[in-house]
Amino acid sequence: MAVYALTGFSLVSLLSFGYLSWDWMKPSLVADVATDPMEKSLPPTFTRPPHIIFILTDDQGYHDIGYHGSDIQTPTLDRLAAEGVKLENYYIQPICTPSRSQLITGRYQIHTGLQHSIIRPRQPNCLPLDQVTLPQKLQEAGYSTHMVGKWHLGFYKKECLPTRRGFDTFLGSLTGNVDYYTYDNCDGPDVCGYDLHEGEDVAWDQSGKYSTFLYAQRVSKILASHSPKEPIFIYVAFQAVHTPLQSPKEYIYRYRSMGNVARRKYAAMVTCMDEAVKNITWALKKYGYYDNSVIVFSTDNGGQTFSGGSNWPLRGRKGTYWEGGVRGIGFVHSPLIKRKRRTSWALVHITDWYPTLVSLARGNLSNVQGLDGYDVWPAISEGKESPRTEILHNIDPLYNHAKYGSLEDGFGIWNTAVQASIRVGEWKLLTGDPGYSDWIPPQTLTNFPGSWWNLERLTDGLRKSVWLFNITADPYERYDLSEQRPDVVRTLLARLVHYNRTAIPVRYPAENPRAHPDFNGGAWGPWASEDDGEEWEGGGESLKSRNKKKKKKCKICKLRSFFRKLNTRLMSNRI
């Protein structure tokens, strides 16, 4: 039996503080704001396709919202969630690209070839071009479609760009993380470039503006220039609260009493993002969209605990298949919801937004085959049972195989060394190496993560490759039942085998030297053309002859490199 050590905290004391309570919806955590009397007279049925605003935050931890008992102030999100439907059985993916790909396609990543890691800046890879995306389906239904924020679904060809994948307009970054002010992104030593784009052009003129503010302002501008009589879809993929930890000073000052510096900066970023959502909501009301709108809020993966995030009381962190990596913050706010102001425990996954939103838009799903998502609007709006009964968290054949896994441990039908995870009903199975498995209380101590006494650590049972949890009864994954219930283990392994038979080959090509920003005027952007074909996806071997040519580094690239290093020093001193 596993032995747990918690030094400095006792489980009893944590319970007494309410950390392990699921009753996070306390009156004191939600502002008492008078309801607009006009909202009460709205009919609960749709008279025309609704305006859809999908807000996705980056690396926001499960604990890092007011109504989950956080020490971070999120009054706007708390109010929107309280007046709508909170999704407390909502799942996402453990890292960026997988969540975004599943949102945009409605398919598990094993069905798009993106089941391993993320799409990196220099990889000749992107969301498969044969996939019909969510915005494309909404365009078919007569929607104006706009994206603001982080793409992270590949850009090596122009055909991969957001404006070629269903969005009428785009303002944002193509890579995974950029500086919040300068929009520079380095993918290794001396491989740095600018990454802010307006449509398919580099938005050099926007440098210096804090991205959270910039993106909220762009949403307001879109709403101001569009007619509320015509349906609109806006996908707001905030860069916040991904590293680097940067925020305007006035937000950091609010959390000056926090001893942990990373947590202080992170908290400031979350509150800043909360205010950006407030401004977006205000714009919806000001320009006449709100009464016929649906606002969906979702995180993209668990919080990174060593960068200020907290998933407490869940186990694990970003990049893992423990609940702390895949259980997300989610809620829907809309005057069109029939049963408002409640918490839903219906099982929902990020792939479900594709069919749900297309159905809301009165779009046509009959010609879309192979979706892994379900229409969950009746479960959200009316409190009906969710059509979803299981979730494939993933099967990653390229991830480092667990040292102690074997086909024998998988009853001869599954190699338990392979990283995989699935939930069926109330049961959750993990195989291989699920990732960092500790429980980390909110980082309040000055020297965290150096303060080992603030960490509850698993000290036994490390030589394993199979875990089984009754996730309904044990949402914190403290009691492994794999040895007590081998029958359930075998059943869930069989489901993994079933899904694995439907998987397509992994798309994870080698990095290509041609992607270097120096070859693109100092900015990240497409480098391959239609004529290059599939040779670009093989890792760049066909470029050897081209790379023999003398590479001249442009003057602007040298200047940008100098100012980038100078800015980094200034930023480190400023925050």
Automatic annotation (TrEMBL):
One of its GO terms (molecular function) is metal ion binding. Coiled coil: none annotated. It holds the Pfam family Sulfatase. It comes from the Eukaryota. Residues 50-361 form the Sulfatase N-terminal domain. Residues 530-552 are annotated as: Disordered. InterPro entries: Alkaline_phosphatase_core_sf, ARSB, Sulfatase_CS, Sulfatase_N. Its cofactor is Ca(2+). The keyword Membrane does not apply. Keywords: Calcium, Glycoprotein, Hydrolase, Metal-binding. The keyword Glycoprotein applies. CDD domains: 4-S. Belongs to the sulfatase family. This is ARSI Arylsulfatase. It comes from Prunella fulvescens (Brown accentor). The gene is Arsi.
